[in-house]
Known about the structure:
- The chain folds into 2 domains: 5-211 and 328-417, Zn peptidases (Aminopeptidase, 3-Layer(aba) Sandwich); 212-325, Alpha-Beta Plaits.
- The protein contains 11 helices and 17 strands.
- 34% of the residues lie in helices and 22% in strands.
- It is globular and about 80 Å long.
- It has helices at 5-15, 33-48, 93-108, 135-140, 159-165, 196-200, 238-253, 293-313, 333-345, 360-364, 391-417; strands at residues 20-21, 25-26, 52-55, 61-65, 74-79, 87-88, 117-121, 183-191, 204-210, 212-221, 262-264, 268-271, 281-290, 317-325, 329-330, 352-355, 369-375.
- The chain is of the alpha+beta class.
- Strands 3, 4, 5, 7, 8, 9, 15, 16 and 17 form a 9-stranded mixed beta sheet that branches. Strands 10, 11, 12, 13 and 14 form a 5-stranded antiparallel beta sheet that branches. Strands 1-2-6 form a 3-stranded antiparallel beta sheet, with no helix packed on it.
- Zinc ion (ZN) binds at residues 80, 91-92, 125, 190, 359.
- The site of zinc ion has 6 residues, from loops.
Amino acid sequence: MNINKSRLQEHFEIISQYGKLGETGLCRPALSSIEKEAFSVVTGWMKEAGMTVRIDHCGNLIGRLEGKNPEGPILMIGSHLDSQPYGGRFDGTSGVLAGVEVAMTFKEQGIIPEVPIEVVSFCDEESWRFRKGLFGSRGIAGKLEPGELERKDKDGITRRQALIDFGCDPDKVEECAYAPGSIGAFLELHIEQGPYLEEKDRPVGIVTGIAGPLWLTVELQGFAGHAGSVPMNLRKDALLGASKMIGEINRIVRQVEGIPTVATVGSIRVFPDAPNSIPEKAEFTIDLRDIDLKRRNDFEQKIRTMIGEVADEFNLAAEIKEDTKLEPVECADWIQEIMVEESESMGLDSPKMMSGPFHDAMVMASLCDIGMIFVRCKDGISHNPNEFASFDDLAIGTELLYKTARRVTSKLNSLIRS
Ligand SMILES: [Zn+2]
């Protein structure tokens, strides 16, 4: 191996102390003092790797390894150091430390990359603190939305204030955006957060694309009444309608076998929420994801039609609100090809797979070609203190990332010349 597995493991063990929760868990909120401490530790490692380091006004930590051609398109590598409130040590952190290890390996081998490499820990990927995530990558991509800085966390602290406390100037977040064309490619290593690689008995996988999530909220309006006196045939029971819809959503998506489409109803609210009242209102969410936009649109249509029909059946008024609608993105074919070749050269047979969860790479795809490596994680568990990936697997993934980075930097350089 080119990379240093024991150094990677040591970095991991050190950084896991920052926000340690119980024996194996992690709570490292975005823009917190704990994240800032973790940033300063990683800054030290970046400097050891010969990088110049800065924190931009969006709260992104960025280390830059200069290239032979400093004006050349940047190869960006990154992920995030923030975690879920009741999270694991590997989600996000793996990708940042793997990026640092890649830079250290370049330095150790005396290789100056043809174009600059920037290793990034993106600010607030996880989204829970201000209920809107991918903040840092959207800042770099110039995709921040009006009003974002005024969003508050559960303690009433605005993102604006959190940025100030972190040492950033929130009035300058727009300066974080990179000029179109300045980034040539983006690579992210991430734990799989699903059971596929374990089932296939493979340490790493090559990601073909990231599913686009569609988030809807369905509001059903019925009529409240006494649970003891209103005859069954005269009721307008909003929860009864919702329960049939939830079952139907699951059935619709499962009609076609062997497709990766997933649909989830993860939250429901009932009014008046009393045992002896007929539910007047029910509100539930739908999370629908697919790598194939046309297929997702077809399923969305079927679900919307079904909701209308079931609402009629139960005498309910139904309203569907769209919360989030993101298009699926594809990983660049040429980067996937490099990963396949390099993985074969390592004696691996790495399966290609899509990503159901979204990542910073999804945002970066609006700026440049992207590639992603997944690392097997135990039982597919993530967003949980029991999240685990072995250091053997992480080292294999990091080695593949290094080999890919070598080839991608050369390729980006040859593109300018041609
Ligand atoms: Zn993550």
